[in-house]
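Task: sequence design from structure.
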């Protein structure tokens, strides 16, 4: 149940660093799922709940794909639909890709700027979309999880004197959900860290070890954190309708976690 909203460019005047890059996005199908690359115009695809069910909470979803492409169905649209139907506004992020062939982009300068801009953009439209400004978080899958984790470490609270309403907004994510993220050894806990939801498969050995260690750092830092490691699961499960294994229930666990922390009470 959602109000239909079209894809929206998050940099109205063009993304810094993408000047002169006007190539069309590339779409390929793999086992019936869309895989996107060639992104020069970062955007969000909103899934806005109808007013009768909205919880006032939003999650920006960054699909994975090794920074070479975006697996935008099972790591983007599918979870967005699930959360939207439960009253959580969801925004699938198309961010610039640092590792695709001949890319001039970097994760730290361009992809990170895109997810930060997406957070600001959603905050700037919070009244229109019936979202509480202190209930806007990030979720990322694989490389997108790395991006979400970076957003939770690197943020500012906006420039209140900016003439641009988007630039006035904070880029702080109020919660972070990292789904089989790489590079967790770089993610440190501090008193400013937002609450953390971690999820991976036990057979995804390096990543499950990294998630365990990250959870421990958050626990020691007294930052709310929850870790789920599913047996007999590897990398890249996302959300698929034809998955009947126990892992298919993970989105419900995420919603439970949001509820436990008070993100779904009232509006």
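Answer:
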């Amino acid at each position: 149940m959602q109000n239909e909203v079209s894809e929206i460019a998050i940099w109205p005047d063009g993304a810094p660093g993408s000047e002169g890059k006007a190539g069309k996005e590339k779409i390929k199908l793999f086992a019936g799922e869309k895989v996107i690359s060639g992104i020069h115009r970062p955007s969000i695809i909103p899934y806005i709940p109808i007013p009768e069910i909205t919880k006032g909470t939003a999650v920006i979803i960054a699909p994975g794909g090794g920074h070479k492409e975006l697996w935008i169905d099972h790591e983007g649209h599918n979870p967005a639909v699930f959360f939207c139907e439960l009253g959580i506004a969801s925004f699938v992020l198309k961010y610039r890709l640092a590792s695709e062939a001949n890319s001039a982009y970097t994760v730290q300068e361009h992809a990170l700027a895109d997810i930060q801009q997406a957070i600001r953009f959603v905050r700037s439209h919070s009244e229109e979309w019936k979202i509480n400004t202190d209930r806007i978080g990030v979720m990322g899958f694989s490389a997108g999880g790395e991006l979400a984790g970076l957003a939770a470490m690197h943020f500012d609270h906006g420039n209140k004197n900016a003439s641009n309403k988007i630039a006035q907004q904070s880029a702080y994510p109020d919660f972070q959900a990292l789904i089989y993220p790489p590079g967790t050894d770089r993610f440190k806990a501090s008193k400013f860290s937002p609450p953390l939801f971690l999820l991976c498969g036990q057979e995804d050995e390096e990543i499950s070890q990294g998630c365990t260690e990250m959870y421990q750092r958050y626990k020691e830092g007294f930052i709310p954190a929850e870790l789920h490691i599913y047996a007999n699961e590897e990398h890249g499960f996302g959300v698929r309708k034809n998955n009947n294994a126990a892992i298919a229930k993970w989105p419900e666990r995420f919603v439970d976690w949001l509820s436990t922390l008070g993100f779904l009470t009232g509006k």
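The two ends are 17 Å apart (CA to CA).
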